[in-house]
Amino acid sequence: MKYYAEVKISLKKGMLNPEAATIQRALSLLEYQVENTKTIQIIKFSLTGENEKNIHEEVDEMCQRLLCNPVIHNYEIKITPQLKDE
């Protein structure tokens, strides 16, 4: 069966986020006052597997081996079945 996987990757609390700091400074220059700016990365793909549990385990392994650095990143995995007509 085919599944869609969505992985959201964010920095752990206390990690420096220069991209978010730059965005916040730029918004301030445009006279928008925002606080606590954070950025996340979203990776989406589809894959085939026996069931949702096996797919989740495989995507978790992908995260730990390549997609993120578990020392500095948190990640969330969302798996949804692909409809037959998609």
Tally of separate helices: 2
CATH topology of the domain at 2-14 and 40-81: Mth169, Chain: A
Name the beta content range: 25-35%
In the CATH hierarchy, the architecture of the domain at 2-14 and 40-81 is 2-Layer Sandwich
Sheet/helix structural class: alpha+beta
Question: Which regions have little confidence, pLDDT < 50, spanning 5+ residues?
Answer: none
Strand order of the largest sheet: 2-1-3
Rg, Cα atoms, Å = 17 Å
How would the blueprint of this fold be written?
Layout: E1 2-11, H1 18-29, E2 40-48, H2 52-67, E3 73-81
Antiparallel strand pairs: 1-2, 1-3
Task: Supply the key terms.
33% helix; 2 helices; Mth169, Chain: A; three-stranded antiparallel beta sheet; 86 residues
What does this structure look like?
This protein is an alpha+beta fold and 86 residues long. It has a domain at 2-14 and 40-81: Phosphoribosylformylglycinamidine synthase subunit PurS (Mth169, Chain: A). It is built from two helices and three strands, in the order βαβαβ. It has helices at residues 18-29, 52-67; strands spanning 2-11, 40-48, 73-81. It has a three-stranded antiparallel sheet with strand order 2-1-3, with helices on one face. The protein is elongated and about 50 Å long. It starts with a strand and ends in a 5-residue tail after the last strand.
